[in-house]
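Recall from the previous lesson that a structure prediction takes nothing but the amino acid sequence as input. Here we apply that procedure to ROK family protein from Bacillus songklensis. The sequence below is the only information supplied.
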Amino acid sequence: MIKMTQRLQTYSKAKAIGIGAPGPLDAKKGIILGPPNLPGWDYVPLKDIMEQRIALPVVVDNDANAAALAEAHFGAGAGYESVFYITVSTGVGGGFVYNKQVIKGANSCAGEIGNMIITNTGPSHPVLNKGSLELLASGTALQRAGKQQLNLQGDAGELFRLAQNGDPTAKDIIEEFINYLAIGIANVIHTVDPDIIVLGGGVMKSKDSFMTELREKVKDCVYPQLRQSVRIEPALLGTKAGIVGAAMLPKQSR
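The prediction returns the following tokens.
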């Protein structure tokens, strides 16, 4: 990260650096606390390390918060007061933006829905809860199920392609994924009641295979009076959302 920043031609003109990093983390101190998908990154003072080497102010926040910020300002959430962004990728993360400001929580853990318990069964993990949303409805979860049940060696996209071609096992895995993700989204809706849920992350490359069913499943899981107002849309900024949001962090932190 340091070498890449120093190689940028515009580095000398920069006034600050924003970093979107996997949570959990301490956004106030810029410390990475032990993300499930970054083994060994325990209590890493990323802000201090970067500031010492780059000699510019550095702001660190959850990568999902950064993406949420970008989508709320420039993407699918633009024009809405409250936007909850969910990334479904290697893991599952979330960020809540209200009135264009990220809601971080007392310990920088607001929106950490990946560790939300969906069921009391499921694989174990050294950091995450058993039966958590991330272990059941992430790209990694799909990849794991594809490998265990179909001996697939590719990513989640391969599983979606098999399901579209009628493979019954692949279809069952995707159906389970949709059910778990729908429960997680319904829990978010009942907790913060956002204007819109925005879905991003690598799994959304296969959105055409599951978005319609996902919307219907979510409606089945919420209060009847909420069903007509459920709004779930794919992210518009794609993989750039986190980068755009990270660039916005220093200004947002003033």
